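Lab manual, section 2.4: Encoding a predicted structure.

Procedure: take the sequence of the chain (93 residues), apply the prediction step described in section 2.3, and record the output as C-alpha cells. A sample record is shown.
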Amino acid sequence: MVDKISIALPSDMLVAIKSAVASGEYSTTSEVIREALRDWKLKRRVNELESDELRQLIRQGLESPTVSAEDVFSRLKSKYSALIESHASTDAE
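Recorded output:
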C-alpha cells in the first residue's frame, strides 16, 4: 500500500532531487525520497544501537578493566558493517 503526502522543500533540495532524476540516477522523485528515508531510518537505528552498545561496553569496562580498546572497536566495526550489509541486501530485494 502506498500513501501520498505533500512536502515542502527548500529550492536547493528540490533542484538536487530533480537533477538526480534528470540524470537517470533515479526513475522518479519518489524513489529519491524513499531512499533518503531508508537512509534516515538506518542512521536512527545505528544511533540507537550505538548508544545501547556504548553503555554496555562502558559497564563491561568498569566491571572488567581488561577489555582492550582494540577489541571494543573491532566488535563495533564488525557489528555495524554487518548491519549496513544487511540493510543494503534488504534494499536490493
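Check your result against the sample. The chain has a mean pLDDT of 86.
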